[in-house]
């Protein structure tokens, strides 16, 4: 998908022609990560009115609209062999967002996103046989122990939900591979997002009936859907044409740091030195495990 770098002649400048594309790719990745975490923070502002369930429902609607517009799935042409991973992906997609947003409500944005990132880290470590990756696993485990250390105010339920979100993200990655092999283009994710949105439709109606939404809460929820679903998805499509997949995965590991900073700036969720140390350990483990062999 990415463009090949042109070979540089001997008389060319020190910076290869591919450099501007790489720089723009890095800028796009940073903007995508910042958008994703800002969307989660803005969505959490609607929790007092809609609750995490209502915000996730709206996010699923927005994600479905974007993915259907991009993927244009031909649902009637799907076979059962194609449908069953799509249905599983829909369940995982909805569960992942719901557990993550509920975790954000309970333990804060930075800690919730850090715990969720254990999912892709586990996939990366499971596929490797390097001794260095065993050290990465130990480092990540140490970071989790620091984050989940017993304290009077520790919310184990919230942290447990963050770990469930991590398991869902790992499943999301594996299922996307299956869907990608069986269904061309973005039709599979678009179909899964549509099924998930339909599942959340009665939930969203029930939430609206029990807790009449305000215009501000709905706006925050829609903004969460746009910033955390639409913008990152479209940005990732553009980024993967400019940077290698490995570079993309490596840069993704900064998201827990972005989440912690956004949580502090937007929501006033400050973290202590131990929490930052735990986040740093998980980020470092992600970065090293994804670094070139």
Kindly list the characteristics that best describe this protein.
mainly alpha, disordered N terminus, 0% strand, 12 helices
Write the layout of secondary structure elements.
Blueprint: H1 19-44, H2 47-71, H3 80-107, H4 109-116, H5 118-126, H6 131-147, H7 156-182, H8 187-210, H9 215-239, H10 245-252, H11 255-267, H12 273-290
Descriptive overview:
The protein is globular. Helix 5 (118-126) runs parallel beside helix 12. The two termini are 22 Å apart. The chain is built from twelve helices and no strands. By secondary structure, it is mainly alpha-helical.
Summarize the structure.
The chain is mostly helical. 78% of the residues lie in helices and 0% in strands. Helix 2 (47-71) runs antiparallel to helix 3, helix 2 runs antiparallel to helix 8 (187-210) and helix 3 packs antiparallel against helix 4.
Shape: globular
Biggest sheet character: none
Q: Report the end-to-end length measured between terminal Cα atoms.
A: 22 Å
Proportion of beta-strand residues: under 5%
Give me the count of strands.
0
Question: Could you estimate the helical fraction of the residues in percent?
Answer: over 70%
Order of helices and strands: HHHHHHHHHHHH
